[in-house]
Amino acid sequence: MPNLIFFMTDQQRWDCIGRFNESIHTPAIDRLSAEGITFSQATCQSPMCAPSRSSMMFGYYPSQLGVRTNYGGLFDESRLPSEPLPELLRQAGYQTAGFGKTHWNHSDGVEQPSTRGFEVRAIGLSRESGHYEHGAVMIGDDAPEALAAYYRETASFGGGEENANGYKGLTSQIPMEQHRDGWVAEQALKFLDEGTDAERPLFFYLSFLKPHAGFNVPKPFEDLYKLEQIPDIPQPPWLDEPDTHLFASDAIHEQSLAHYREKREVWERMSAEERKRTTLRYWANCSWLDHYFGRALDKLEKLGRLDYALIVFVSDHGEMLGERRYRFTKYNLYDSSVRVPLILAGSVIPKEKRGTIDDRPAELADLVPTLAKAGGVAGEPDASRLRPAGTGGKAGKLLRVSRQRRKRAAFGTGLYVADEGMEAHLVHRRNDPRGGGPCGRGSRRALSPDRRPERMDESVRAAGLRRNPGEAEDGAADAFGLQLGERAVLLQQGRSKAVIVAIESCRNDNYGG
User: Fold this and answer.
1) Cβ distance 347 to 329 under 8 Å?
2) Using CA atoms, how far apart are residues 60 and 20, in angstroms rounded to an integer?
3) Percent of the chain at pLDDT above 70?
4) Partners of 8 in beta bridges
5) Which of 72, 73, 69 is nearest to 48 (CA)?
6) Is residue 424 a part of any domain in this protein?
7) Are 48 and 509 in contact (CB under 8 A)?
8) What SS3 state is found at 421?
9) Are residues 424 and 348 in the same domain?
10) Among 259, 297, 410, 416, which residue has the fewest nearby CB atoms (within 10 Å)?
11) What is the maximum span of the chain, computed from C-alpha positions, in angstroms?
12) Is the pLDDT confidence value at 334 over 70?
């Protein structure tokens, strides 16, 4: 069985790796891209930490798990829908070591919350954070002074470190190894030096809290960039966005709208140099974490663990980073929020596929069955999976989703793209004339060709997904991104198989969300 290496960041944009942005310094990730497959159209299942990560670890959609917000979670260990990935691999004979963020949200009121399969566990938070796991080493216990220093430095950053000060950031005065992510990385590197079991294959999970705001960045990584070489944040030619899903969402989430207006007012008063510094610090955060991935890869290589290995690099969702009139964080359905970097690398990748870009759609829910298949898990989870040598349709669909799993799925009023033959179209479940689409009840008959455009327009209006204001005059949408449904339709045209795109957006401000 191959060693399985799982690297994850929090809130890293799809275009903030060297493969897609030559200005950003990510040599370790670039090494993986050069030696593996980079999925250019990978999307998360929800642009929010807890739902996205639960999907990644269980292989189900948020609607199936019932985890739709950062307050949500699967709290009852006796009623889990299946074993999570670490437990699947532990049962298959792997040594399972997990370092950093999982965001299970399952420890409140539980005396001994489960590690869910991790035999070795270290978490860069306190026991009181709501993220304690029984037997885990916590930074709050191991290095309380370091954690206290971190919180003092970020005290003005607000909830989730996502207010205007959090995004403006600062040059950190804390030694990098005493940051929460730095401490986690050092625990992981120490394990590689002292704790691996030579008799078993290794599942090594290293997951960071950054580049999620706030941007208190170690100086050596700020110094990798020159402010004059950082681009200013591009803005569309309109000031407001009526008739979009952003407008509809703002109308019912007053707190989120207030947070947006606060940051927008600050950024509109900034100079271009000040705005660029936010981007610089975000990129520097990415470079800092890449530095730790590189150190881990070097140690794994010296141990011989990369001789037979599958390596994953991924982020849980993206970051708007000031686009669309100074929108930050990720609670929307634009590319910068829902697209994520995803790379599969390692010796198990066929030589002819190494260094390639796969432009087919891929979903993070596919990672569980992909890794379970690679790890030889008996009775592997029933789902489609990423297959380097696959052709057509979604990136490497090996098995069809079972009828039972489709029956369990409940996408509510979510959006999906239905591909009838070679023509894709956006539909809204509540208004779908077929009675609910592939995950609902009703006929699967195709719409007549003359009705499809009309139905698509009606569905787009119902979901608040019109084209951007001003596009007809100057094509601004091409420069600033299509709405999700429009991009998905364009993405699917000419594909040979149906792909369900189910991105569910829920908003909640919570710790590290």
Assistant:
1) no
2) 29
3) 74
4) 207, 314
5) 69
6) yes
7) no
8) coil
9) no
10) 410
11) 67
12) yes
Whether residues 140 and 7 fall in one domain: yes
Is the separation of the CB atoms in 394 and 497 below 8 Å?
A: yes
Is-contact 387 396, C-beta < 8 A?
A: yes
Residue pointed to by tokens 């849980």: 316
On the question of pLDDT at 383 being above 90, the answer is no
Q: Helices 367-374 & 49-58, crossing angle to 10 degrees?
A: 30
Highest mean pLDDT among 345-349, 390-394, 443-447: 345-349
At residue 106, the pLDDT reads 81
**Domain CATH for 59:** 3.40.720.10
Terminal alpha carbon distance of the chain: 34
Same domain, residue pair 451 and 306 = no
**Domain annotation covers residue 499:** no
Residues 190-224 have pLDDT tens digits of: 999 999 999 999 999 999 999 999 999 999 999 99
The reply to whether 454 falls in a domain is yes
Enclosing domain of residue 446: 403-492
Q: Are residues 220 and 291 in the same domain?
A: yes
- Domain membership of residue 88 (yes or no) is yes
419 DSSP β-pair partners? 424
**Alpha-carbon distance 139 to 147, whole Å?**
7
| Same domain membership, residue 152 and residue 108 | yes
The pLDDT tens digits for 464-510 are 333 333 333 333 222 233 233 333 333 333 332 222 222 222 223 33
Same domain for 29 and 93? yes
Tokens encoding 137: 């080493």
Task: Return the bridge partners of 133, or none.
Answer: none
Q: Considering its fold, how many domains does the chain have in total? A: 2
Q: Mean per-residue pLDDT for 21-33? A: 97
CB 197 within 8 A of CB 95: yes
Residue with tokens 């990415």: 286
User: Within this chain, do residues 428 and 331 fall inside the same structural domain, yes or no?
Assistant: no
- Contact by Cβ (8 Å): 417, 492: yes
Check if the beta carbon of residue 154 is closer than 8 Å to that of residue 205. no
- Same structural domain for residues 318 and 430? no
- Residue 12 confidence (pLDDT) above 90: yes
465/446 Cα distance (integer angstroms): 23
**pLDDT band for position 108 (cuts 50, 70, 90):** confident
Residue 273 φ then ψ, to 5°: -65, -40
